[in-house]
Amino acid sequence: MRFLRTLADIKSPPKSLYLVDIALVLSIVPHLDKLKFPMLVYLLAVLIVLIASRKVPKALQYALALFGVLSVISSFYTDFNFSSLNRFTLFVSLLNALLIYAVSLQRLKGELNFYLAFSPAMLLMLSFFLHNSVPMLFYTVFTLFVFMLLLVWSKMHTPLYDALKMALTLFAYALPVVALLFLVFPRISFEKAVYGFHDDFVKKSGHNGVMSLGSDAAMNLSSQVLMEVYFENGLPKEKGLYFRGTTLYVDRNDSFRQLPDRLKKPLAAGRKAIATGGRVAYSITLYPHNEKWLYALDIPASSPPKSTLLDDYTIVSDKKIDKRYRYEMHSDLSYLMNAPLRKEIREASLRFYGKRDAISSERARQLVAPRDKQTLENIAAYFRSLNLVYTLKPDHLDKKRPVDSFLYESKKGYCVHFAAAFAYMARASGLPARVVTGFLVNPNEALENYLVVRESDAHAWVEVYLQEKGWTRVETTAFAERIEGDVLQRLGVEGSNTGQKWLKRLNLHLMYLKYVIETWILEYSRVKQMEILHALINSSTYLVAFIVNGILFTALSIGVAIFVSARRCHDRVLCILRPLMKHAEKSGLEKQPNESMHDFLCRLKEKVNADMIDEIDLLYHKIKYAKKYETEDIAQLKKIVNAIKK
């Protein structure tokens, strides 16, 4: 606190060149993680030289100029060719390095010119190409405020505290104007627009579409966020929300895999599922997983642009999802998926290896009933009788006979083991079956309409084709006799105290705030602007709410500006004397900056009763400097000042 008080009491600003240095440092910080090592060394060398000497010799300037050229060349010579200019990050990184090199040369001269003064703004604007995140948004706002503070301080030549108040006041007054300009002129999305660049940011999250049963099938309970879902009309009233990802048909001993691409077909119009309930509208923000499939609430009624809805109700994008992708969806939670099976799908859904898991195969044949529904119920009842345990730490299975090993020896596993074993026995009993992988999320974990899907929500379930109903979902983990404590503890069902629950809820609120900022600020575009304009034209309620919120925001900004700019007394005695000093100013007597209070009061005797001024002088110095004073002294001083005012 003492440091901040000392900083605020700085009487006058430093040289303009040093103010530009502060702005340069702030604007270069976002670029540091994109600079190659040679450029970082060059920047460090320039910084050391500027700190060590006020005036850099010409010879040293030339040496650093040559060093800078070599740093730029060594940073890009292995990556650069003319065809690589279409790589967005390489192009921007090269431009970034050249700009920093030019700014460094200008600064080494020790002369302030227009280019050097404008370069912090150029560097800050360039950082928008490299970063599109909430932390960068707040850092940009902070940096812009510091730019304004430095400019105000250099022009006002006042103590830093006064310049800070003025900058805060101007900043608050400018907020409504900035908000209006933001709405009218959407930010250009360099990440999504096509300008001949190919983005080479590739991140990966989520599973790879293979369901493994072997020793590498360790359950991943990472809290990494994979999707954010926002429901337009409130959360569906379901016990669990199934998000469909991939459908697996091919049984490869210790794993289930998807069909080859040549066997996948788009969903024909005449084969669509029959909706038997209400339709849900929502939007999904999917984080990169470097695969083509998109997730949707089971089952999707349509697919987003540039994607295909397949006849197994999975959605495949035209391109791999290698960057964050937001899309709108509609799904039917209650449905009848009873279209006749294609020959390839029926064959894949019935294929099993009877000799591999002989015990399970033989038992499945004994469970066959005249009707498909009864056969399914027999298999479910049999699973319940096996006393299986749901655990995140299953024993290793025999890869040569994984189903028999799970059902009759280990008897411990989680969703993938239950799903693989059930699908195998359904096929062995003559029922077409497939495994669906995706996510199962508890709606109770949501914040109003906002839902977070994490890697720990990954799940697998089975769909069995019945002659009477078509594809029917089977939650195979429901057949477990008990759930081991490691599952309950790690999923937060048990062992979570009030503090942990509170922190979890707080984290959800922060994520929702981040989601709102990303949706309405970072991703605000021409498309979203048209959506707002359409809503304003067609909905009077939306228009009134928009105007009211705009007025409230403007009033709040003006209120903050007035509050910040208001003059405040930090000295109790001076606060009491403030009315007297204003009264004196009206009479042509103003206290000079370097004038003592005693001298000012002596001059004031010419305009005001001398006895009263003498008493004020005495009380002022007693309260101001005496170690002890009476409460009555404060009251008497106020009384005399008020009397003079009247």
Structure write-up:
This protein has about 650 residues and is α+β, with helices and mostly antiparallel strands. It has four domains: about 160 residues; about 280 residues, no CATH class; about 55 residues, no CATH class; about 70 residues, no CATH class. The chain has 21 helices and 20 strands. The strands form six sheets. Strands 9-3-16-18-19 form a five-stranded antiparallel beta sheet, with helices on one face. A hairpin with a 3-residue loop joins strand 18 and strand 19. The two termini are about 40 Å apart.
How would you briefly describe this protein structure?
By secondary structure, this protein is of the alpha+beta class.
The computed structural class is alpha+beta
**CA distance, first residue to last residue:** 41 Å
Number of helices: 21
Q: How large is the share of residues in beta strands?
A: 5-15%
Provide the low-confidence segments as ranges.
82-86, 190-205, 489-496
How large is the radius of gyration?
Answer: 36 Å
What share of the residues lie within helices? Answer: 40-55%
Shape: elongated
Largest sheet: 5 strands, antiparallel
Quantity of strands, as a count: 20
Query: How much is the average pLDDT?
Result: 82
Strand order of the largest sheet: 9-3-16-18-19
> What number of domains?
4
